Amino acid sequence: AFDGAGLVHITPSATDPALSQNGWKTFFRAVGNDNSQGPAAAKFLTGDLGAKKVCVIEDDSAYGKGLSATVQKGLGSGAVACTDDVKTGQKDFSATVQKIIAAKPDAVYYAGYYTEAGPLDQQLKQAGFNGKFVGPDGVRDPEFIKLAGQSAAEGVYFTCPCIPAEAAATFRQQYKAAYGADPQTYSAEAYDSATVMLRGIDAGNTTRPKLLDWVKNYNADGITKHLQWDSNGELAGSVAVWSYVVKNGTIDPYKELTS
Q: What is the pLDDT of residues 170-203, one digit of tens each?
């Protein structure tokens, strides 16, 4: 709809690689896609966490299915101990838990959102699973800790093409002063996206064609990264993927990843 109207738009969070392959001329993405996160997550699982066998669980969203596919490809068939899918809104994960326990993996990667990941992690720990639980950007949220319970959430890892709040310290301080809470997963990326548009309007680009041309030719640093796009609306150059860990009930940066 936006493309048909010639309305430029920048997403600070949508990571499905297929979005930039639709021929849309008005689509731009301010984060890395799952073709960067998936391989980095696979390398993190087998390298940093030392997992020999991984169960990859996905939800029924396009996001979950797409990310699951890139993670499995990065792992290779020899490292994928089991796969399963869950439904949005699901509460009872006993069948998935049993499948994971039977496969005896070293780690579980959940491709989906925190609403299901929290209860799944809790039920896995209650069933005696002692391996690593890893989720993506859709799980990296304080609500995950609430849903899983602090005990089950402790030591859970996340992968995310988002920068740590410490990397944009001034933004973090100003955000907290304004809203009484720390920035969420893609708050800084959203700020960068809006800033590109607002700078264009300030420069007099007040029609849709002019603002689209402004974004196409944008080339400047934001607070999260250098912002410049290729012809498909993907960020030009390499995009950082970070890992995070739940420590003492909070989500802390762990390390920057490579794919």
A: 999 999 999 999 898 899 999 999 999 999 999 9
Question: Residue 2: left (phi > 0), alpha (psi -120 to 50), or beta?
Answer: alpha
Element (H, E) at 226: strand 226-227
Residue 93: pLDDT band (50, 70, 90) is very high
**Interacting residues of 122 by C-beta distance below 8 A, sequence separation 6+:** 147, 148, 149, 152
Q: pLDDT of 11-43, one tens digit each?
A: 999 888 889 999 999 999 999 898 999 999 999
Query: Whose CA is closest to 153, among 171, 141, 169, 138?
Result: 141
Fill in the DSSP letter of residue 204.
Answer: T
Torsion angle of the four alpha carbons 114, 117, 122, 126, in this order, in degrees rounded to the nearest 10: 180
- Residue 259 is predicted with a pLDDT of 65
Confirm if 240 and 32 have CB atoms less than 8 A apart.
Answer: yes
What torsion do the CA atoms of 78, 81, 87, 90 make, to the nearest 10 degrees? -160
CA distance 104 to 124: 12
Which residue type occupies 163? I
Burial code of 189-212, b = ≥16 C-beta within 10 A, e = fewer? Answer: bbbbbeebbeebeeeebeeeeebb
For residue 35, give Cα distances in angstroms to 1, 68, 126, 137, 206. Answer: 25, 11, 33, 14, 34
Residues 6+ apart with CB under 8 A from 101: 127, 128, 129
